[in-house]
Design a protein that fits this description.
Layout lengths: L3 E4 L5 H12 L3 E6 L14 E5 L5 H15 L4 E4 L5 E2 L7 H29 L2 E6 L12 H21 L4 E8 L6 H4 L1 E2 L8 H14 L8 H13 L6 E4 L1 H11 L3 H9 L1
Parallel strand pairs: 1-2, 1-4, 2-3, 4-6, 5-8, 6-7, 7-9
Helix pairs in contact: 1-7, 2-3, 3-4
């Protein structure tokens, strides 16, 4: 039987690249996105179902899952790709900005997972892949809210992987680098009204990019290939890193003592 993958955030970036790749590999693909009426390339493809999904709308989550099961009979793999980065001075963030970062990156991912689990549990088979970031392992200045949301995804995924193992349901994490996540173009900036932070924030992005400028960055297609590997390798493995820049920062944390790691991140 043809396998089915359900992908959130499939309108652009990693989610879109993954939808194309899985479809090319012969899978049924549910490409879930907030504005399916704007989609022009996927809608006429066989084995491709474009559906409306807003991870902040529980009703749309359940409806899209029901539509998937009605169309393809089962969900073999869920890829939670929807998310964004909120960057800036934490002290200047509004309550609404804080809540939305978690509503999309954490709570929406959890609600999506809950909606799919009954189908996987009934079959005692399935794979859930959550897209985190190297920023779910290491944290950077002025990425406080984004990093903390991805740390939450990492902890949730690790614990859930243990919880579901006896049901033959795998949970995996993919940790892309900065270019692959289109981080700078896709991020939302917190408007800062506290002048003392301005010089440090202004210089941070260029200094941050310089440190890994010499390293190979993963593209969205590279990350899609990593997702496909995670979905099909049948390995007991939790984390998959995509991009040399991601590996650099993860190694900086795991292979240095804490004092050296903190110096690397604060310089």
């Amino acid at each position: 039987m043809t396998k089915t993958v359900f992908i959130t955030g499939a309108s652009s970036g990693i989610g879109r690249a993954a939808a194309r790749l899985f479809h090319e590999k012969g899978w049924n693909v549910v490409a879930a996105m907030r504005s399916p009426e704007r989609e022009q390339q996927f809608t006429d493809l066989e084995r491709m179902l474009v559906t409306r999904l807003d991870v902040e709308d529980i009703g749309s989550i359940q409806k899209s899952v029901d539509t998937c099961v009605d169309s393809f009979g089962q969900i073999d793999v869920l890829i939670n790709s929807a998310g964004y980065g909120l960057m800036g001075v934490f002290e200047s963030a509004t309550a609404e900005q804080i809540q939305k970062q978690y509503a999309v990156n954490v709570f929406g991912l959890m609600q999506m997972t809950q909606a799919v689990l009954p189908h996987m549990r009934a079959r005692q088979n399935g794979t859930i892949i959550n897209i985190s970031s190297f920023g779910g392992v290491t944290a950077s200045k002025f990425a406080t809210l984004y990093n903390s949301s991805k740390f939450a995804v990492e902890g949730f995924s690790e614990a859930l992987s243990h919880e579901l193992a006896f049901l033959n349901i795998a949970v995996k994490i993919v940790e892309p680098g900065s270019v692959a996540t289109n981080f700078r173009n896709g991020m939302v900036l917190i408007q800062n009204s506290i002048d003392v932070y301005t010089p440090e924030f202004t210089s941070m992005l260029s200094r941050y990019a310089q440190r890994t400028a010499h390293l190979q960055k993963a593209t969205a297609d590279d990350v899609a290939n990593t997702l496909y590997q995670a979905a099909t390798d049948n390995q007991i493995k939790l984390r998959y890193v995509a991009g040399d820049d991601a590996q650099f920062y993860i190694d900086a944390k795991l292979k240095n003592d804490e004092a050296d790691f903190l110096k690397i991140m604060r310089d």
